[in-house]
Amino acid sequence: MRPTAAASPLSLRPSRAARTAAGGLAAVLAAAGLAACSPQRPDPRPAAEAFAAGLQAGDLSAAPMAGDASAAEEQLNAAVAGLGDAARTVVVEDVAADAGSADPATATARLSTTWDLDGKPEATDGDWTYQTTATLEYDAGASAWRVRYSPAAAVAGLQAGEGLRLETVAGARGDILGAGGTELVTERPVVRVGLDKARVQAADAADSARELAKLLDIDADAYAAKVDAAGAKAFVEAIVLRDDSSRTVTNRQIEAITGGRAIGTTLPLAPTRTFARPVLGTVGEATAEIVEKSGGAVKAGERVGLSGLQATYQERLAGTPGMRVWTVPAPAGETGGDTGKDGAGQDGTGQSGGTVAEGSTTAEPRLLFERAAVDGLAVTTTLEQDLQEVAEKVVSDADSPSAVVAVRPSDGAVLAAANGPASNAYNTAMVARYAPGSTFKVVSALAMLRSGYTPSSRVECPQTTVLDGRTFKNFTGYPADSLGTITLSEAIAQSCNTVFINASRKVEMSAVADAAASLGLAAEPATGSAAFLGSVPSDSTGTEHAANMIGQGVVEASPLGMATVAASVAKGSTVSPRLVADPAPEAAPAPQVPLTAEEAAQLKQLMSGTVDHGTVTDLQDVPGPAVQAKTGTAEYGDGSEELRHTWVIAIQGDLAVAVFVETGFSGAETGGPLMKEFLTKAQAVGTGG
Length: 689
Description:
Blueprint: H1 9-12, H2 16-37, H3 45-57, H4 69-80, E1 87-97, E2 106-116, E3 127-139, E4 144-148, H5 151-154, E5 162-169, E6 176-177, E7 183-196, H6 205-216, H7 220-229, E8 235-242, H8 251-255, E9 260-269, H9 277-280, E10 283-285, H10 288-293, E11 303-305, H11 308-312, H12 314-318, E12 322-329, E13 367-371, E14 379-381, H13 385-394, E15 402-408, E16 413-419, H14 428-431, H15 441-450, E17 458-461, E18 464-467, E19 470-473, E20 484-487, H16 488-494, H17 497-503, H18 509-518, E21 534-535, H19 542-549, E22 556-557, H20 559-571, E23 580-582, H21 597-612, E24 627-636, E25 643-652, E26 656-661, H22 667-684
Parallel strand pairs: 6-14
Antiparallel strand pairs: 1-2, 2-3, 3-4, 5-12, 6-7, 7-8, 7-9, 10-11, 12-13, 14-23, 15-16, 15-26, 17-20, 18-19, 21-22, 24-25, 25-26
Organism: Zafaria cholistanensis
Subcellular location: Membrane
Protein name: Beta-lactamase
């Protein structure tokens, strides 16, 4: 009721008590009205957590988005596609309501994102971590919080219309060094020769490809097909040529062909194409298998070690690649800014809008993350370049797989490990497994010495002998005047099989296995590279045991293994061969029965007879210190034709050598001349014994 004009103002003023009561009632009524208009809202954190999970998975379908979730998801995945399959982790750091925000209320979620760019499970400096914020809006109609998508909420610093690009930056690859720090593999100039399809009409590309293939002497059909399969503007590499005096095809010839290009660059290469290739290995583009096996550490297109030491020491040689994350314009039609707002910010119904606003494309790329590349470290080997070249020349004409291995007895350094061309890039020298033939008699002789024999012991050497119903015989052409009763020394010099066959009746196979280990043959390799030395079982019996005594049966050795046997004899103690000096490999386990200096001296005496008057007297003419040696021939195959592995092992001063040819006539006739050539040339280059 309004007061009348006659009423006194004082009469209308309530007492203090009345005012207090009225104020309390008003407060209660106001609170009740506020509660009626704004019921208590749910916690916004679950919405933020769902958004974080969606960002991490690249799937926003389950996230409560303020707008078209599929449009936001498309924009997100287009933006980060350039990071490939790098894993990411997104966590919510905190969520807080925005101070003073009016209806509809807003909140801000602070997110932390980590991208595992280098594919390593542990935390590294290849992890890109950043913080972003996302705005949440309260949808009163649905009584729910919704997230407003923006590029900057997904990736720190990302703007509308941008995507990401991951760039890998390789550090300088480490060299492979030889003895004395000689650069065996280092960056050398090359020319990448190929067809640039951007410089040739599509209809003429095949003709140009064939013309270039003819010039380079490569398969024209295969190269033409490769060119046809490449993109319209691709450079299709045909071959890489060393840019040195060995190059016969000139840039002028290449570029006279329409689309032909010669691009100068460098690659880690050895002095020549064949130099220790199976040992040192090669570098090339990572295969799909290597990429898969790396678990993400190696990316498609990266140059990595494919074989040999280059593959074994890939991580050390390559160092740590650098990485950069750049912004790039997003693909056409996939640009966009915040989602969930139209021009007015709301669609007028209280529901979030569903349009994706057009964003502006940033022209200049921006760097968002960088990890500097770390150059690779060198791997130092024990190879002597001059001696390796000599060894390769010695077997360069062999028409079956072959090898020459030289070891320095005093320290076990592998000075040369050469493979003939017929080995077809297989490392016959260090990993092949063959029956060692009569070179194994040095091992059997040690077992016999330990069983009571001496070099002057009288033994029987019949032309044939029978054990457990099997007939064993000496090789065709065995000297008749060395049959009958002879010394053990003569049995080694002339390589009498039947002496060792008969000795199997007295010498246990376990003793032979121990002797092999004492001479370094059965030890676990500690070369620092892929290697096999030998396999000598301790449980063979009967005819198998007898055949083992002459290097047949089931015993196996590599050329490196037999060079190690010779080296152990020369040193007077067990030698563990090593190819890599830095990083130093772990030491090989010591044999259970050590080789003594006295035993080694007796073996050396036995091997002297082979050169003095035995199977390889031609080695008497080698200049320098006296040579001790042992020849070997091992039959193989199904018996339909005579096939023989041929061997020679030799000692000259501080040099132990094994020469092997997979298929030859005999150790003396096939391997003897090769050994003589090698030892003679080794003296000439100053690395002989």
